[in-house]
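Lab notebook page, bench 4
Experiment: in silico fold of construct C2
Operator: M.H.
Input chain length: 333 residues
Purpose: comparison with the prior construct
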Amino acid sequence: MRKYTFKTQRPKIVVIGGGTGLPVVLNGLRKQAVDITAVVTVADDGGSSGIIRNYVNVVPPGDIRNVMVALSSWPDLYKDIFQYRFQGDDQFFAGHAIGNLIIAALTEMKSGVFDAVQELSNMMQVDGHVYPAANEALTLHGKFSDGTELVGEAEITAAHKSLERVWVTDKNGKEPQAVQPVIDAIMAADQIVLGPGSLFTSILPNLTIGNIGRAVCESDAEVVYICNIMTQKGETDNFSDADHVRVLNRHLGQNFINTVLVNTEKVPEDYMDFHKFNEVSKQVSHDFRGLREQNCRVISSNFLKLRDNGAFHDGDQVVAELMNLVGHSDVFR
C-alpha cells in the first residue's frame, strides 16, 4: 500500500462509527502519517457485549475492543489472546471475548469507560485515540415507518422493519452528552469520516448524541461518508446511496455530508452467502443526481473486496481516497 506523507503537521482524521466496518478503515489509516481518533458507539446491546452490559452494567465493549486491536502495535499473539472468544461448551464464559471482560473490569476499576479505554490504550500501544461516544452505556430507540417504536439495538435490528428515525438516551432517559475530548477532537479535525457501517445502528447512534451532532455540523473539517456496499434488511431495504445520505442529513437537520465514497463494482451474482450474511439483502443502487442535489461531491470507484462469500470494503482503496482528499484540503496544500 502506498504511504502518503505531508510536509506540514500530520492531518487529524476523526472516524465515527461502530460494527465491523470501522476497523477496516482504521487498519489502513494507521499505516499513514495521520493523527487518528476513533469515536465508537456505546449503544450496542447484542451478543457478548449485550450480556456483559446487562450483568455488569458497563458500556458494551465489543466495538471498542475491535477498534483498539485495529490501532494496537501489540504483537499478533497478544492481539489474538485479547480477541479470543470462549467456545460454546465453556458454560459461563461461552461466547465471551477476553478483551470484553478486560474492558468491563477496567471500567469498574476506573469508574467509567472513557478513562478505562485511555488506560488500556496505553497498555496496548494504540497508535491514535479511541474515544467511546459517551462515558456510559446508551439506549437506542427506533421509530418505524408504520408508527411503532422499539427500544434496544438488538430488538430494532431483529424487527426487520423500515426505520424512520433513531435516537439515544442515557440511563435516566435523557439526552446524553459526549465527554469534552470527543468534541475537541471533532472541532480540531481536518477530516471527519463516517462509516462504513450500519446506518441506523452504528453511525447514527453517535451523531444523535446532541453535542457530537452539533460539533460535526460546526466543524471546518470535510465530512466524508463511506456508503455501504449492501443494503441491510429492515434498516435500508431498497436504499440508494442518495437515500443513505438523505437519512443522515435529515437526522441532523441540514446537508452536512460534503463527500461520499461510492462503490461502483458489481458484486458477482451467486457470490453472496445470504445465509451466512443474513443481515444484508442486495447491492446499494446508485442515484448520483440525488447525491449532487444534496450538495455532495461524489467519488465513485471500485472499493469492493470479495471475501468469504461476502462483500466488504477494500480498506486500502478507501484509505487511498481519504488521503487524496485530505492531501488536497486547504490546510495541506
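Observations: The chain has two domains: 12-43+133-332, 46-127. The chain has 13 helices and 14 strands.
Next step: discuss at group meeting.
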